[in-house]
Automatic annotation (TrEMBL):
It comes from the Eukaryota. One of its GO terms (cellular component) is cytoplasm. Gene3D superfamilies: Phosphoglycerate mutase-like. One of its GO terms (molecular function) is phosphatase activity. This is Phosphoglycerate mutase-like protein. SUPFAM superfamilies: Phosphoglycerate mutase-like (SSF53254).
Amino acid sequence: MRHFQAKHNIDPKYLQVLDPDLTEYGLQQGFNITFDNELDLIICSPLSRTIQTYLSLFHDIEKRQRIPFMLDTDLQEIGEIPADTASSKAQLKQKFPQLSSIINRDLAEDFNDKKNPLYSSSSNSVKQRIIRFHQRLWTQRNEKHIMIITHAGWLSRALDRKELKNGEIVKQIYKNGVV
C-alpha cells in the first residue's frame, strides 16, 4: 500500500521539507477503510507519512494491538530530496511516543542517512533494498497475510508497475518465494 495523501503530494514547497506529514485529508483517509481480521503482520516504512497512514488505518487501539507491527528501513522512499528522507530516530520517538519501543527495536541510529550506500537512491541500491526485503519475507517470516505500507517510488520499482495513487492498495500474491 502507498501512504495516504501527504503535504508534499499537493504542495511542491513541501518537497524541500524533511519527512513531511500527511495532510488533514490524509489523516482522515484511514477512517474510511476497514480490514477484516485476515492480516497477520504490518510492515511499514519508517517515514512519518507511512507511520501516520498506519495509525490512521488502525485508529482502533484494540485492533492495532492485535496485529504485529514492525518498521523496515528497506521500505524507505527511494529519492534523496528532503521529503524522501526520514526524521531521526529520536524525532520519530518524540512524534510517535506510542511506538517508541518499536522504533527502538527496529531502527538503527543512522537508518535515515541517504549517503549510506544501503539507502542511497542509486538504481543498484534500490534494487538491493527490494531484494533484501523480499528475502527477509521468505526466510524470516511465517505470516501469510502481510500488509506493507510504503511509498510510490519503492512500490513502482518492486512491483514493476506505474506509480500508485495515495492510499492505493495492491494485493500481491507470492507463491514459493517468487516475486
